[in-house]
Write a structure and sequence with these properties.
By secondary structure, this protein is of the alpha/beta class. It has 16 helices and eleven strands. Helix 1 packs antiparallel against helix 2, helix 1 packs antiparallel against helix 4 and helix 8 packs across helix 12.
């Protein structure tokens, strides 16, 4: 576990502008007198987004129904756990739990059936190896497998149908990127087919198409020609999707910084299922560098570690809470708004080590190190990082991950995003209790630019094993706490 950054870097080094991070946006140059620095958008209502939970539940239901058909005397619970673990792991790795996929259930049948077959064969082999007397016969195995495939198709079909109805009733605002002529034709086509759940609200001229502005007096969707206009459109229309007719790496990166889902339609290389289309336009999702199929496994690691850790740490939490109450009075927990993945705000929990004068001080004062108002108990909690323990609850809630860029307050996120190139890109990944920057000693009075560089390097090269390594290094660092 790492300590919170609490002091202004004494030697921040050069401060490159965001122009360097999104170089090449010549057609999107802002008007004179406006800023071209990239910052996260202010808080806006987040639309209801589909999650992987219903698809995971459908897979689990299929295993349950199939295991119920296995005849006695085999212990069904043991079989259920074994098959369920294999199925969920294989389907997650194959990307079959992606919530934003346009794939129809019939397109998934070959992949689902193949992985179900592997899971049941593995389960049968394990049973035969360790309990030969309870080995599954060919008939029982085939019956369970057939029931599994049939159930998962029906359950996933129901999930997909519900999502289509929701998408039609609550379409997501989208910006179309491409030449104005082609973009208007695409927007008009999609506007006539609400079943795809996309509602175009504007057109962005890409670099390749010159960013041609809308002719005076021409009706239709507005054509956005500057970063200021894009920023305003994303915020005011709660834009959640960007559809690219011509791929532009800089604009893709820009919209992903805003937390938008990015799509590429038309063109070559559309090798997905036949159902992945928008009224005949081939469609594939442009996945951010930090978004890997294994992120479901990352969340599983969070739950597997944070749950037991919170239970084991309960006596320590109680002692810390009691010490804070006796030393500093009521109000044991300190709650503060922080910026999480894709700029979403959440309430971070800590043990209170200092009572701020007012909310303004809490939100905008950077350093509380060496503050005379801090008691001996508060000093000890900060120095040992025990004040961070309540954030295990943030991890269980899904606000944070165990490993990731450390979250910061909105005021400072806005400031650093204007000053440091790539700072906003840290929010592509769930924020964490500890991270690559922290295990390299970048906490306290250290360079924000260096932390930003380490955080983005972590995201670009993420793997589950790297998370485990960082957790082990963090645990080792607790025996020699450096404080905050």
């Amino acid at each position: 576990m790492t300590t919170e950054s609490t002091s202004v870097p004494s030697s921040p080094g050069p401060w490159p502008s965001t122009r360097q991070a999104v170089h090449g946006l010549a057609s999107l140059a802002p008007p004179r007198g406006t800023s071209d620095r990239l910052a996260l958008p202010p808080r806006r209502p987040a639309p209801v987004r589909s999650t992987a939970a219903p698809l995971i539940a459908a897979d689990a239901l299929a295993v349950l129904c199939a295991a119920w058909l296995v005849p006695a005397p085999y212990p069904a619970v043991r079989l259920l756990l074994l098959v369920a673990g294999c199925v969920l792991a294989l389907n997650s790795y194959a990307g079959l739990h992606r919530p934003g996929s346009l794939t129809a259930v019939l397109d998934e049948v070959p992949a689902l059936a193949a992985r179900a077959g592997v899971a049941w064969c593995v389960a049968a082999a394990v049973v035969a190896a360790f309990t030969p007397s309870l080995a599954l016969g060919p008939g029982a195995l085939c019956t369970a497998y057939a029931a599994h495939v049939a159930t998962v198709c029906v359950a996933r079909g129901a999930v997909r149908a519900h999502r289509r109805r929701t998408a039609r009733a609550q379409p997501r605002s989208a910006l179309v990127v491409g030449g104005p002529g082609a973009a208007r034709r695409f927007a008009a086509t999609i506007g006539q087919h609400p079943e795809y759940g996309i509602r175009p609200v504007g057109i962005v001229g890409s670099r390749q198409d010159g960013g041609t502005p809308q002719p005076p007096g021409e009706a239709g969707l507005p054509v956005l020609t500057s970063m200021e206009e894009i920023h305003r459109a994303v915020i005011q229309n709660t834009v959640r999707d960007a559809v690219f007719l011509t791929e532009d790496a800089a604009l893709v990166k820009l919209f992903q910084h805003y937390g938008c889902t990015t799509w590429r339609v038309g063109g070559e290389g559309q090798d997905g299922p036949m159902s992945d289309h928008l009224w005949g336009y081939g469609c594939r999702r442009l996945v951010p560098p930090g978004e890997r199929r294994g992120l479901t496994a990352k969340r599983a690691l969070d739950l597997a570690v944070a749950g037991p850790a919170l239970a084991l740490a309960l006596p320590v939490l109680l002692l810390c809470g009691l010490a804070v109450r006796l030393a500093d009075g009521p109000g044991v927990l300190f709650r503060q708004e922080r910026v999480g993945q894709n700029g979403r705000l959440f309430t971070l929990l800590k043990f209170r080590t200092l009572r701020p004068t007012d909310e303004a001080e809490s939100a905008t004062r950077w350093s509380v190190a060496n503050d005379r108002r801090m008691s001996a108990v508060g000093n000890f909690l900060r120095r040992t990082s025990l004040d961070e323990l309540p954030q295990l609850w943030n991890v269980l809630r899904g606000d944070m991950s165990l490993v990731g860029p450390r979250p910061e307050r909105p005021y400072f996120v806005a400031q650093f995003s204007r000053i440091h190139a790539g700072y906003a890109a840290r929010h592509r990944m769930p924020v964490g209790l500890t991270g690559l920057a922290q295990v390299h000693g970048l906490r306290g009075d250290t360079s924000i630019e260096d932390r930003c560089r380490f955080d983005n390097h972590y995201i670009d090269h993420w793997s589950l094993w790297q998370d485990v390594r960082i957790l082990l290094r963090t645990a080792a660092g607790l025996v020699r706490p450096a404080g905050s």
